[in-house]
UniProtKB/TrEMBL annotation:
UniProt name for this protein: DUF397 domain-containing protein
Pfam families cross-referenced by the UniProt entry: DUF397
DUF397 domain span: 4-56
Length: 116
């Protein structure tokens, strides 16, 4: 995760594994620090903006670009974030506790600056 300024929700405990977000020249990057493969999902600022608005329950228009999709596994504890309609593309996988901390941070506006 070097070379980028990664941010996690303030609701994620110090030293805990969490969902992290960073901005770079190629777009918005999302990862889960506990992922042993170090998977990084890269998306556009517009797609990230739609994700944030959706997680906040705010109205938004459907973008023309690929969107980020959140799915849960049958166990209800595994959460995956991936680009919709892009089979084989990187997916960030986390657990419900870490995802909930990320969503609470989103709702508190902690990641809004990535979409400006």
């Amino acid at each position: 995760m070097s070379g980028l300024n990664w941010q996690k929700s303030s609701l994620c405990g110090s030293g805990d594994s969490c969902v992290h977000v960073a901005a770079g020249p190629a777009g918005i990057h999302i990862t889960e620090s506990a992922d042993p493969r170090g998977t990084i999902l890269t998306t556009t600022p517009d797609a990230f903006r739609v994700l944030l608005r959706s997680l906040k329950g705010e109205p938004h228009r459907t973008p023309e670009a690929p969107v980020l999709e959140v799915t849960t596994a049958g166990d209800g504890d595994t959460v995956r974030l991936h680009t919709s309609g892009a089979p084989g593309a990187p997916a960030v996988t986390t657990d419900r506790r870490r995802w909930d901390a990320f969503v609470q941070g989103v709702r508190a506006g902690e990641f809004d600056h990535f979409t400006v």
